[in-house]
Design goal:
The structure is a homodimer. By secondary structure, chain A is of the alpha/beta class. Chain A folds into three domains: 142 residues, 3-Layer(bba) Sandwich (FAD/NAD(P)-binding domain); 126 residues, FAD/NAD(P)-binding domain (3-Layer(bba) Sandwich); 111 residues, FAD/NAD-linked reductase, C-terminal dimerisation domain (Enolase-like, domain 1), CATH 3.30.390.30. Chain A is built from twelve helices and 25 strands. Chain A has a five-stranded parallel beta sheet with strand order 3-2-1-7-18. The first copy, chain A, has a five-stranded parallel beta sheet with strand order 9-16-10-11-12. In chain A, strands 21-22-25-24-23 form a five-stranded antiparallel beta sheet, with helices on both faces. The longest helix of chain A is centred in the C-terminal third of the chain and has 15 residues. Chain A is globular and about 70 Å long. Chains A, B: Belongs to the class-III pyridine nucleotide-disulfide oxidoreductase family. Chains A, B: Keywords: FAD, Flavoprotein, Oxidoreductase, Redox-active center. Chains A, B: Its cofactor is FAD. Chains A, B: Pfam families: Pyr_redox_2, Pyr_redox_dim.
Chain lengths: 453, 453
């Protein structure tokens, strides 16, 4: 037994390894032992990069790994144990039970503990879901498997089930790989985190890219032949598929924390405060497994995203290391790209704003990404929601072509700062013809909304 | 004589015509006469587009004209008189004296008056400055003249005098037109609104683009031959030039307002309040001729830029039309591009922060515009200044390649909202591999600065 304080991290991806690195930065190996368990083979990889690995936009899986286990061991003195799953946590005895690659179990004591157990993909009990050729795309191992399957089995048609971010990115990947692509989604429009009017723009663009879009059609079964997927069935039709990717979203992986007796919030994520403390002393959580404070709705939300995981892990690590840090909450900002179309959102959409009890107005406006006369000026449609009485911004959505999407950051900063539509319309943003019309698209939209309110 | 109230606008470009249009929107032709004098031929054109007209990125001068005089007359019932210069204003009698194209003078009464007289280019009394082949690039007529000269005289080498935004954009234009380009600038680095360390990045990039950069060399004379420019002389050398463009900045064109007895501020711009009212009742001013409140230094500044002109004109027009609007001030945000290099800034640079009496820290950090593994990830260097005690952001600068520059908007929004470096580091910005590393470059820089403070 070692007398040094010991930090155990459960989960070796963005949140867990950010916590480990940051704790190490503040407390050297002579002050703190750090042990990290990862049930997979990889640490600290970019899960968001998986579609680009499949598309071969990114050449190898190693490119997605920010730091491998060996680097953590060597440069950060973090004892990373891959292929090892934590199967039990005893908060009273302050121990975890870990099951190694060979099935052997060991018990390890901790002083501080970080849950960074990530998310589990939604996987409905559809007939045929376990057939060959059906993939999730959550882990790097998944991504490698999909890519190998495309390389080796040479599928000619793909069905993507689920029209959210990952679904769209996988659709793009298959288009790039030359497959015929169909998208099957239960909702009326793709990108359910956008309002349907903005989602419709995405659907139209997808169709223009040659993706066959089936909206309002939940998948009901996967047809198989000799254990291999052959089609995706909905109530309206059957779509041939040599490969199927499930992109139905994820939920917080909080089972272990729940079993240990930690408080789980209403969204199913581990409840944490702004310092990433759970309900138990010296036990922290970060990343996709927690729920976060939404700055506009002021409610807890679970949003699986690498940026939050990194920031939250860092906050936990700083506090564990004796520093002081707080996580400021989230706005639900997200951005994606599918074959040149850029899609972004921040804050609340209409349904979310209604659910949060806001009375609001919206404005949707099409403008251009550059001065209209400048070559490459492309359409960008911006939608803004603002509260009726206070005129404060509640949310925004952007759908447009090259250079459209990152404008969401201006809106995110404005939302973060509690600005009104007039504040946004008045901001001193960068203007030159290659970058923007003289009134930036987000500001024209804000101005129009202000005029009406 | 007409009994209807009458608005006279002096200057038919962005600020003046925004004021006219907005006043018209609020008060119809039966309620308000609007008369606008423009001494040139064009109204409401994009002066910022001139370099692209010269480069032939934009095909014709008409493309830069948002609305021509005829459109204003027909659709907005604004009596636009081009080729007509206002030569005197009598505030007591509430009249202006205008000199028409034929030299004839008329006197016109007003109830409300808007000064939108723009800026005058700095034009030092250098020997040879009036030679053929020497151009300013302030008005659309200037742009047309430069383009014609390149088309017809086929100059092979150009010297751009002045390394600010317009100088760089003209250097780019000449590179695109196939000329050999030299840039001559008095300061040690180009882009004087950046700090020298960031300006040095621009200089290096310019050199890489084949532009011969002569810094620390004020032009002392223009050599001529038969009335035509042949070279630009500095204390260090003489540089052959078939064409010379002067990009030495501008100052507010406030002579007419001064002569009329209006209060002129310390920067030489017309003093206005947030509603764009001058020191005289019913007399307004907007655009390059005024001085604006700088939100960080809290001092008046004169910044000639189309965005401010548009917003200020609109504010004046709203107030004249019986509405209520205020201009929120400026941050000095600016963005430009030279052969793929993007340069942007907002708030105060080091010299400005010192002059404003701030104690501050800075951080400069190189990152990438996309996830490092994503194709097209390019270098972006971000510099951030923050006040020492409050940790509030004071300013930021960006120099980088494709997709670098517009990130200045995030910083501008953060500055506008009075955020600290920690606020900025915590923002929920859009992340996906094609758009950003998992920590956006502006946030990594903010985080590093926060760690040090």
């Amino acid at each position: 037994m070692n007398a040094r304080p010991r930090l155990i991290v459960i989960g070796g991806d963005a949140a867990g390894m950010s916590a480990a690195s940051q704790a190490r930065r503040l407390r050297g190996p002579e002050e703190l032992d750090i042990l990290a368990f990862e049930r997979g083979r990889h640490t600290s990889y970019s899960a968001c990069g998986i579609p680009y690995l499949v598309a071969k936009t990114v050449s190898s899986a190693e490119d997605l790994v920010a730091r491998d286990p060996e680097t953590f061991r060597r440069d950060h003195a973090v004892d990373v144990r891959t292929g090892t799953e934590v199967v039990g946590v005893d908060l009273d005895r302050r121990t975890v039970t870990a099951r190694g690659p060979g099935g052997e179990e060991t018990e390890e004591r901790f002083d501080d503990l970080v849950f960074a157990t990530g998310a589990v993909p939604v996987r409905p009990p559809l007939p045929g879901i376990d057939a060959r050729g059906v993939f999730g795309v959550q882990t790097l191992a998944d991504g490698i498997a999909v890519r190998s399957y495309v390389d080796e089995e040479r599928p000619s048609c793909a069905v993507v089930v689920g029209g959210g971010y990952i679904g769209l990115e996988m659709a793009e990947a298959f288009v790039e790989r030359g497959l015929r692509v169909r998208l099957v989604e239960a909702a009326a429009e793709p990108m359910g985190t956008l309002d349907p009017d903005m989602g419709a723009l995405v659907r139209t663009a997808l169709t223009g890219m040659g993706v066959e879009v089936h909206m309002g059609e939940p998948a009901t079964a996967l047809r198989t032949e000799g254990g291999r997927v052959r089609a995706v069935a909905t109530e309206k039709g059957e779509y041939p598929a040599d490969i199927v990717v499930l992109g139905l979203g994820v939920r917080p992986n909080s089972a272990l924390a729940r079993a240990a007796g930690l408080e789980i919030g209403p969204t199913g994520g581990i409840a944490v405060d702004a310092r990433m403390r759970t309900s138990a002393e010296g036990v922290w959580a970060a990343g996709d497994c927690v729920e976060s404070f939404h700055r506009i709705s002021r409610r807890p939300v679970s949003i699986a995203l690498g940026t939050h995981a990194n920031k939250q892990g860092r906050v936990a690590g700083t506090n564990i290391g004796g520093g002081y840090a707080r996580f400021g909450g989230v706005l639900g900002t997200a951005i994606s790209k599918v074959c040149g179309l850029e899609v972004a959102r921040t804050g609340l959409n209409e349904a979310e704003a209604r659910a949060a009890g806001f009375a609001f107005e919206t404005e949707t406006l099409a403008s251009t990404t550059r001065a209209g006369y400048y070559p490459g000026a492309a359409t960008v449609t911006t939608k803004i929601l603002a509260e009726r009485r206070t005129r404060r911004l509640l949310g925004a959505q952007i759908v447009g072509w090259e250079n459209a999407g990152k404008r969401i950051d201006t809106l995110a900063a404005a939302l973060w700062g509690g600005m009104t539509v007039e504040d946004l319309a008045g901001l001193d943003l960068g203007y030159a013809p290659p970058f923007s019309p003289v009134w930036d698209p987000v500001q024209i939209t804000a101005r129009k909304l202000a005029e009406r309110m």
